[in-house]
């Protein structure tokens, strides 16, 4: 580790407000091999906003510090702290130096919480620089590794809401289709999640796509994708899927 002093500073600050018993629960719940001090997100976010000594450094030096901590810490909360630091920053402005550094952060992901938090950041980097980011997401989309594959599609949207979708449907649907028959739980939840958000932005195209994949889509993915549809439509699609299975 290049910056052990900053790692100790962050870890000690988080341990001071953590609950070890909750940390054990977090590791078990997420099936993560990392250690956790046990902090809920709002508390972690507030502590990160209070600052650490290295915040006085140049932004690129700060990025180097967080990169070092992300790539070498055995504590999952330290990784979350890095994400929380950059969350408000990438909403406003993305530095071109971020993606070459952060793209390798995926190597440390071993659970859904880190995967989805990192996807949130990647979606902002993607929106800012599709030329650099999208080809890498497509490579991950072709992978059989769970977390890169999940991140490849969750990063296509800004989590949820009316402005979540920013890419054309023609870009997104082929990547979703590559995951549609992956029956792993976390993949199917991700497929349904992204389809749900796309349905708001591209109702006709997504409706046509969902009908075309009814024989192939898993029940868990379909259920999540239909969450905002009228009850009658949800019942109709479920019946069509059962008939086509």
Can you walk me through this structure?
- The chain is globular, with a radius of gyration of 19 Å.
- α3 (41-50) packs across α5, α7 runs antiparallel to α8 and α8 (130-141) packs across α9 (146-154).
- The longest helix is centred in the middle third of the chain and has 17 residues, at 76-92.
- The termini are far apart.
- It folds into two domains: 1-155, Leucine-rich Repeat Variant (Alpha Horseshoe); 165-245, no CATH class.
- The mean pLDDT is 96.
- It is mainly α.
- Helix content is 67%, strand content 0%.
Name the helicity range. 55-70%
CATH architecture of the largest domain: Alpha Horseshoe
CATH fold assignment of the largest domain: Leucine-rich Repeat Variant
- Count the E strands: 0
Q: What number of structural domains do the residues give?
A: 2
CATH level 1 name of the largest domain: Mainly Alpha
Shape: globular
Q: Biggest sheet, in brief?
A: none
Report the end-to-end length measured between terminal Cα atoms.
52 Å
> What percentage of amino acids are in beta strands?
under 5%
The low-confidence parts are none
The ordered H/E elements are HHHHHHHHHHHHHH
**What is the number of helical segments per DSSP (H or I, 4+ residues)?**
14
- Tell me, rounded to a whole number, the average pLDDT: 96
Give the C-alpha Rg.
Answer: 19 Å
**Which structural class do the helices and strands define?**
mainly alpha
């Amino acid at each position: 580790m290049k910056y052990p002093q900053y790692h100790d500073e962050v870890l000690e600050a988080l341990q001071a407000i953590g609950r070890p018993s909750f940390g054990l629960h977090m590791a078990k719940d997420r099936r993560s091999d990392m250690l956790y001090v046990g902090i809920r997100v709002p508390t972690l976010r507030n502590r990160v906003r209070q600052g650490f000594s290295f915040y006085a450094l140049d932004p690129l030096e700060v990025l180097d510090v967080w990169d070092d901590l992300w790539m070498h810490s055995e504590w999952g909360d330290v990784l979350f702290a890095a994400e929380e630091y950059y969350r408000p920053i990438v909403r406003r402005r993305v530095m071109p130096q971020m993606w070459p550094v952060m793209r390798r952060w995926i190597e440390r992901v071993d659970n859904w919480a880190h995967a989805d938090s990192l996807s949130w950041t990647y979606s902002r980097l993607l929106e800012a620089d599709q030329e650099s980011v999208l080809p890498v997401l497509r490579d991950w989309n072709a992978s059989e590794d769970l977390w890169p594959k999940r991140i490849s599609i969750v990063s296509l949207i800004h989590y949820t809401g009316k402005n979540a979708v920013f890419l054309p449907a023609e870009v997104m649907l082929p990547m979703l289709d590559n995951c549609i028959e992956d029956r792993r739980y976390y993949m199917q939840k991700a497929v349904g999640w992204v389809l749900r958000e796309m349905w708001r932005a591209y109702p006709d195209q997504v409706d046509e796509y969902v009908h075309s994949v009814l024989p192939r889509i898993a029940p868990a993915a379909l259920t999540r994708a239909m969450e905002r549809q009228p009850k009658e439509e949800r019942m109709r699609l479920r019946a069509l899927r059962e008939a086509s299975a």
